[in-house]
Amino acid sequence: xxxxxxxxxxxxxxxxxxxxxxxxxxxxxxxxxxxxxxxxxxxxxxxxxxxxxxxxxxxxxxxxxxxxxxxxxxxxxxxxxxxxxxxxxxxxxxxxxxxxxxxxxxxxxxxxxxxxxxxxxxxxxxxxxxxxxxxxxxxxxxxxxxxxxxxxxxxxxxxxxxxxxxxxxxxxxxxxxxxxxxxxxxxxxxxxxxxxxxxxxxxxxxxxxxxxxxxxxxxxxxxxxxxxxxxxxxxxxxxxxxxxxxxxxxxxxxxxxxxxxxxx
Length: 264
Ligand SMILES: [Zn+2]
Description:
With 264 residues, the chain is of the alpha/beta class. The protein has one domain (3-262): Ribonuclease Z/Hydroxyacylglutathione hydrolase-like (Metallo-beta-lactamase, Chain A). 22% of the residues lie in helices and 26% in strands. The chain has helices at residues 38-45, 62-65, 68-79, 95-106, 112-116, 169-176, 199-208; strands spanning 3-9, 23-26, 30-32, 54-56, 88-90, 119-121, 125-128, 131-137, 147-153, 158-161, 180-184, 213-217, 243-245, 251-255, 258-262. A hairpin with a 2-residue loop joins strand 14 and strand 15. The two termini are 18 Å apart. Bound molecules: zinc ion (ZN). Zinc ion (ZN) binds next to loops.
């Protein structure tokens, strides 16, 4: 059995050039977060919102959830008018109310029925589509209920999504038990905060977790494909071999017991 993780966006909140907000889809039907650029990312990849079965919410910052009203609106009026494609949203308790507020603010009244049809799962572990998932607390702004997720399929495939987080023990433990980890690097080295990974944190993590492939997303670095003056910088740190700085569209597949990058 093969699995796929496809990066639909790799930028942090500030959208470095040629990047959408950090966003991924796995096995072509489960997404992690719903950033403001989510619908744009799906369109660019030729994926219909009606194909999405599950949204795993890491936390409630705008660059991670403000795209949800557009996904629900699109499903309701275009790709799922008959309501044949049920949606499940997995998130901590409190996520449901906040998302309802968000949808009411965005399109008053229009999304009430769409939200009523969403199945919300608030437990911190579960099974979806053969994937055992667990949600674990991470180190970020506590006001937005920050979590990461770990997924392990019945066939042995595993990966972690850090959500937004600085280095912390829960994340370290989850990564240690996994084959692949999608980890954010939201801050340049000079920012005086530990709520995101910085290049030196990724360096240290890579040296501790030599057996895990670390895929870096939510980055502050412009894509090398940009010809504009960099928003902040376009130079990448020189990280160890198990670190892979992602670009929008990058796809990794799990085949023959191993994760590897494909050329889409
Ligand atoms: Zn955040």
